[in-house]
Amino acid sequence: MKIYYIYHSCFIIETESSFLMFDYFKNKKSFNSDFNFNELLNEIFKSPKPLYIFASHSHHDHFNAEIMTWQNKKKNLYYILSFDIKVHSNVNNLYTANKNVEFSLNNLKINTFGSTDEGVSFLVSIDGLNIFHAGDLNWWKWMDDTKEEEKAMEDAYKDIINDIVKAGASIDAAFFPVDKRLEENYLCGGEYFIEKFEPKVFIPMHFGDDFKTTEDFKKSQSKHKTSTNIIAINHPNEILDI
User: Fold this and answer.
1) What is the CATH number of the domain that holds 41?
2) DSSP 231
3) How far apart, in whole angstroms, are the C-alpha atoms of residue 133 and residue 115?
């Protein structure tokens, strides 16, 4: 498995048989880039491996309609889009992802779960790997929440986590929001997720340009006894060392 971090919550994962792209929003240039995004994309279009494009929900920082223009550049390209995304043109190989369903697509098994915001979260099994992308599933514990709002969010988050537990899959790679806008509460969602699943690799996302967040989260978890490898991300267009 090779993981390319693009920006924000977008990653491209290369497995033995396929490419998976999650939540493309935009790409950004960086002086420290490990690759050029457009060149990588063109290589993927030319590759015999299929490309599966996932979008967890319609928010502008998780879905960009530009992806729909790529269908003419690759025959074996497939879209798996959350039910709340409206597509206004004819698209080949389009699959709508509703909450709490399981379906197969070629050699992928896809399980969807709920979100504490919009849309869905994804658990994708391919080539012996279980890959989880949370979308906007998180313990969104805002500092100005009322006690009632805090309790409702905690219950909603833990209910969805329990649904994932029931699926019974060990998680090889988890992509999960770690967002400093939550101030001191930014640890809650990711910490609880690691506690419940101990994924082999935990990759922070949804931190925008605040890359220090990923190193801070990694350091914060050093006090816990976990076998999970937590990745710090340094810049857009980074090949992650897992």
Assistant:
1) 3.60.15.10
2) P
3) 11
d(CA 64, CA 204): 21
Give 166's contacts (C-beta < 8 A, 6+ positions apart): none
Q: Tell me, what's the pLDDT at 45?
A: 98
Phi, psi (deg, nearest 5) at residue 176 = -145, 140
Tell me the per-residue pLDDT of 88-137, one tens digit each, with 9 for 90 and over.
878 989 999 999 999 999 999 999 999 999 999 999 999 999 999 999 99
Domain boundaries, position 56? 2-240
Predicted confidence band of residue 11 (pLDDT cuts 50, 70, 90) = very high
What single-letter DSSP state applies at residue 155? Answer: H
Q: How many domains does the chain have?
A: 1
**Residue 129 contacts by C-beta under 8 Å, 6 or more apart in sequence?**
1, 15, 172, 173
